[in-house]
Structures are given as structure tokens and as C-alpha cells.
Amino acid sequence: MPTFTTYDGTELAYHLRGEGEPLVCLPGGAMRASEYLGDLGGLTASRRLVLLDLRGTGDSAIPEDESTYRVDHQVADVEALREHLGLERMDLLAHSAGGNLAQLYAAAHPRRVGRVVLVTPTAWAVDLPVTTEHRLEAARLRAGSEPYDTAIAAYERILAGDGPGGRGEEEWDLAAPLFHGRWDEEVQAHWAAGEHQQNGKAAEAFAGPGAFDPPATRAGLRRVEGEVLVLAAELDGNPRPALAAELAALFPRGAVDVQPRACHFPWLDDPEWFAARVERFLSSGA
To answer: In angstroms, rounded to a whole number, what is the distance separating the alpha carbons of residues 180 and 121?
Structure first.
């Protein structure tokens, strides 16, 4: 397992999978170990994935100053990784909350990114929040059968703050089918593993006060010369495809695509579609 030392002396780990041109991958969660990304639907057949364990997650060390879990401090970690890898420019893939780190990095270092893939990203960094209405709109697309009707009811309670005390995790488990395009044993195991892969303290600090300056980040994104693909999913509420299109429009060469019948972890829902679409973009653009 390779490691490097970042700006404040914290030792960070990354994992290498596959062969080909490197693709630096930033996990979501927020602050979930990169293990859950797996081989990204078989993308390892054409790319060498560089899966970063963010500080305090997976095999990376806990920093002495835990305020550095805030996402804006982690931009320097990504830059330290680029320098460690000896890359003049790097292709970058980020998932979910990790999309905010990718947006901040691209805004701060626009000449250091090649092609960027943002997979079902959140976009707090540019003030494009996902609303309760977005989430419920997507959830209700699944109405009319189980386990989705039960999941929708649980999700409505969660979003309304009406869940019974002490049963938060149980409610989220009931709602879990809504975050996946399929709900078989493999996907259920992937969901269950998440509880043990996330640093809860780091997740709380990730988007803390002062983390974002949306006008400055939007201005920085306008200087990104490389192509950017925002990959949304048809059944996902975080983000809905329309919001993903708004994010793509902030980049000079941004594009959006929507994976059919997929949700928040699209490489699980249809691995072949996902890997082919991402590789086509990385090879020849949107």
C-alpha cells in the first residue's frame, strides 16, 4: 500500500488498481474510505485507478489537527498526491460529496486537471444544494411496489425529522433501496459495509462553517480548460439530472449525461454502461 506525506505531515494512503493511464479517484461519504469504490464497474480494464483514502479514513492517518477534515483544507492533500505521483496534469474522478473536493481543487489548480468526471456529485462548493423536493421527486419514481413503498415512507420521515428517537440507523436502512438502481444481495452488502468505512467525526467537519466560498469557486471553475463530465443517474435525487446540468454549465467545457435506471452508486447498477461511458469520455471527450 503506497503512502505519501502531505502538507501538514499527515501520512496519507492510496490504493492502485488496474492498468493504463492513471485516474485519481476521490471518494464521497462524506469521508468514507475509498474501498467502497471497488473497481468502478470494471474501469480497471483500461485505467490505473489511484484511490485516495482521505485523511482519517481507510489506511490514512488521523491528522493532529482534526479541523483539517474540513474539505477546503483537503485541497492541499490532492495537490500533494499529484506532486507525489509526478503528474503535470491529472485526470480526476470524484463521487458524491467528493465532488466538492474536486470542484475546489479544480478551481484552485485549473491547469493541473485534465479531464474530470463528477459522479452523482453534490455541489455545495458552488451553492447548488439538493433540496428535500429533489430527493422526494426521485424517491417517488419508485412508488408502487416493495421494498420501495416502505423505503419512501421511511425517507419521508427522515426528511421531515419525524423518525422515532433512537432509530435513525434503522430508518436509513429502510430507505436504502432508494439509493440504488437494484437491491440484491451484492448491493445490500455494499450498503451494510458503509457503516464501518466512514469517519463520522470527519464527516461532520467536512462541510463545516467556512468551508466554501461559492463565488470564488465559480470564478475558478471558469478557468478550467479541460473537459468535465457530470454523470447523473435517472433515479437519483442527489443530484437530480437538472441540477447536474447546472453544475456542468459552470465549466467552460462541461457536459452532463444521465445513466438510465441507475441511482447514487451507478457503477453498481450497470457496471458495463458506467465503465464504457467514463472510458469513452476519458479517451475522447464528452
So the answer is: 15
Helix, strand, coil share (%) of the chain residues, nearest 5: 45, 20, 35
Unique residue bearing C-alpha cell 492533500: 77
The whole model's pTM is what?
0.96
Q: How many CA atoms lie within 13 A of 165 on its CB side?
A: 0
What is the number of residues in the chain?
286
CB distance 71 to 185 below 8 Å: no
pLDDT band at 167 (very low <50, low <70, confident <90, very high): very low
DSSP state of 129: P
159 closest CA partner among 187, 186, 138: 138
Q: Which CATH class is domain 3-131+198-284?
A: alpha beta
Q: What is the pLDDT of residues 270-283, one digit of tens each?
A: 999 999 999 999 99
Domain boundaries, the chain: 3-131+198-284
Residues 6-13 have a mean pLDDT of 97
How many CB atoms lie under 10 A from the CB of residue 137?
13
Cell 437538472 found at: 242
- On whether the CB atoms of residues 229 and 203 are closer than 8 A, the answer is no
- 257, containing H or E segment: strand 254-259
* Residue 276, C-alpha cell as written in the block: 464504457
Residue 246 to residue 244: CA distance in whole angstroms = 5
